[in-house]
Amino acid sequence: MTVGLMRIIRRADADHRSGVVVPSPDDPGARVDATSWWEYALCRAWDADLFCVPDGVSPSRKRAQEKKAKGICQTCPVRERCLDEAMARGEQYGVWGGLDAEERRELERRRRGLRRSS
């Protein structure tokens, strides 16, 4: 096992003991492309509700969960691909690529503004 993969497994075990093994895109033979990036996403080792907070959760708890999710995203090796996917699909919910839905909408507004002014 490579050092990168061991680091991810140890982090997953220490953080939540999910038992999910997330491979590293740095491992020899890893191929991260448009269809396989998800295999390398750190969020795979976490409960999906952390990244997409269900309805009925208090605003303060939602903010806390989103903050934790964004922290996981910051160290994810496929963060940019995840964000690209969410932006391409117009994803309306959850944390993707380290940004929540409102932050992605703001990013899209900025991108549109830059395209118009060019």
* Percent in strands: under 5%
Element string (H = helix, E = strand): HHHHH
Form type: globular
User: Uncertain segments of ≥5 residues (pLDDT<50)?
Assistant: 1-17
Average residue pLDDT: 80
Number of domains: 1
Report the radius of gyration as a whole number of Å. Answer: 16 Å
Textual characterization of the structure:
Keywords: 4Fe-4S, Cytoplasm, Disulfide bond, DNA-binding, Iron, Iron-sulfur, Metal-binding, Transcription, Transcription regulation. [4Fe-4S] cluster binds at residues 43, 73, 76, 82. Pfam families: Whib. Belongs to the WhiB family. Residues 42-106 form the 4Fe-4S Wbl-type domain. It is globular and about 40 Å long. It has helices at residues 3-15, 48-51, 59-74, 79-89, 101-117. Residues 1-17 have low confidence and may be disordered. The protein has one domain (3-117). Helix content is 52%, strand content 0%. With 118 residues, the chain is mainly alpha-helical. The protein is built from five helices and no strands.
Quick overview of this protein structure:
Helix content is 52%, strand content 0%. It has 118 residues and is an all-alpha fold.
